[in-house]
Amino acid sequence: MRKNKPYKPFLLAAGWLFSGLVMASGSGTLAPVVVSLA
């Protein structure tokens, strides 16, 4: 039952990165950095 737990932080980080990507697309400065990271 505990084996499916480690995926939660990864999912949270993915959502955090996605929200950062959306924000970066608005500012336009961080966009290339996020794209190179993805």
UniProtKB/TrEMBL annotation:
This is Type-F conjugative transfer system secretin TraK.
